[in-house]
Amino acid sequence: MVASGEVIAVCTSESKGMKKRDVGQAKVVVDYGIDGDAHAGPGDRQISLLALESIDKMRAAGLDVGPGDFAENFAIKGLDLCSLPIGSLLQIGKSVELEITKIGKVCHERCEIYFQAGDCVMPREGVFAIVRKGGDVAIGDSVRVLA
């Protein structure tokens, strides 16, 4: 059985250090990330993904948060992203292919979410990837684990 999920938000920001906003759809560029996103560029964190279930954990802790509040590019429903091994390939929609490069991240400064709840899921459950194949991604697109 193929593991799959669904894109529920496509988020970008104009500058680093701020929440992203859901723009509904975006162009994903090979070896770069999302066109127009402040975090795009070379390196191993071109795209960030977070499971809706991770966002729901913070909601259960009493926070009024949603997609983009953790600075993730794609919020995904129905796929346990942080359990996938490094090197896993994901297909989003018809053409976009991502390779997972990192699970979690080091936060150099505490974010607004951490100060509100005393915790944040992104350092443990955020997933980062590089773009292997570009194309368009929109809310409702399927996300499939290829390998």
What does this structure look like?
This protein is mainly beta. The protein is built from 3 helices and 11 strands, in the order βββββαβββααβββ. It has a single domain, classed as Beta Barrel (M1 Pyruvate Kinase, Domain 3), CATH 2.40.33. Strand 5 (47-51), helix 1 (52-60) and strand 6 form a beta-alpha-beta unit. The protein is globular. The two termini are 12 Å apart.
Q: How much β-strand is present in the residues?
A: 35-45%
Largest sheet: 7 strands, mixed, barrel
| Spans of at least 5 consecutive residues with low confidence | none
Radius of gyration: 14 Å
CATH architecture: Beta Barrel
Number of domains: 1
Classify the secondary structure makeup into a structural class. Answer: mainly beta
Q: What is this structure, in a nutshell?
A:
The chain is mainly β.
